[in-house]
Design brief:
7 helices, globular, two-stranded antiparallel sheet, Rossmann fold
Length: 289
């Protein structure tokens, strides 16, 4: 990426935070009437609909956890990639990696392609439109060092689905569930590759679905990190890092529990302020603390 001259020193700061990372040869933004263009990592920005799905803490965390778990990845796959928030953060962190992302919704694909162009990622960021479970969307011999996924959390019909199709598909399992993510990831992991996802830990049945999916796909959860949204509350989410069981020594293959359960990551302190560790996480993915 070229690093164009900044108009002023102020361009390098946002609310007194120095933006890190690559400066793409930014093209003039073309923001639709119902769109916004928002900061996501350093100088990277992402197009979103004002009333559609917008990136969340979950997206930032899975990108961070996955790239921490596989910092040498050269080929990355993002399943159910939506507007590109997970992939864009990972691409910011893995400057030499080639990305393939798969998303079914046309509106989300269009936004992701605009973001990729804006961030100067066209040469290493391929966005495919389709259901990642469909035959032919991935070639049988395609393999990836790192696979990322932010599956929808709830079976269809178990809650009130948003009228906006983007929001509904992000929360409810309209095109597959966490087991499908595990199954496809297992088929396309390179030797020693890693699959990272985020999924609820509460109620316990939700976490069980992750381990059932991992078991059925021949995966072992090597790291799990609970996520506490507010200090003192039980963890609602979990970050999961998996590898193919056959890629591990037999004594490390686990079913139903992680090889290493990490301490909880706390998002906010009891007084509502951002927890210092989460501020450090945000800084590490080029996001304001």
């Amino acid at each position: 990426m070229r690093r164009p001259h900044l108009n002023s020193n102020q361009d390098a700061f946002f609310k007194s935070w120095a933006k890190p990372g690559p400066i793409p040869a930014v093209i003039p933004p073309v923001i639709g009437e119902n769109e916004t263009l928002d900061a996501i990592s350093g100088y990277f920005r992402i197009y979103q609909l004002k009333d559609g799905h917008r990136f969340s803490t979950d997206d930032l965390l899975v990108a961070w956890f996955g790239t921490m778990g596989c910092p040498s990845a050269s080929r990355v796959l993002d399943l159910g990639s939506g507007i590109g928030s997970v992939g864009m953060v990972a691409a910011w962190r893995l400057l030499g990696a080639q990305f393939t992302t798969i998303e079914a919704q046309e509106v989300s694909v269009a936004l992701a392609r605009k973001s990729a162009r804006f961030n100067g990622l066209d040469s290493r960021y391929e966005i495919r439109q389709g259901d990642f479970r469909a035959d032919g969307i991935l070639k049988d011999d395609e393999r990836f060092d790192l696979i990322l996924g932010s599956p929808p959390y709830f079976p269809s019909g178990t809650g009130i689905e948003a009228e906006h199709p983007q929001k509904a598909a992000c929360r409810f399992e309209l095109r597959g569930d966490v087991r499908d993510y595990c199954a496809v990831a297992s088929l396309h992991l390179a030797m020693g590759g890693v699959f990272a996802c985020v999924f609820p830990m509460n109620p316990a049945e939700q976490q069980s679905r992750v381990y059932e999916g991992a078991r059925d796909a021949g995966l072992t959860v090597i790291r799990q990190r609970p996520v506490v949204l507010r200090e003192g509350e039980p963890p609602l989410l979990g970050l999961f890092l998996m590898v193919k069981s056959e890629h591990l020594p037999e004594k490390f293959r686990r079913i139903g529990d992680p090889l290493w359960l990490e301490p909880a990551l706390i998002i906010r302190c009891k007084d509502g302020s951002i927890h210092p560790e989460y501020s450090a996480v945000k800084l590490s993915i080029g996001f304001p603390p």
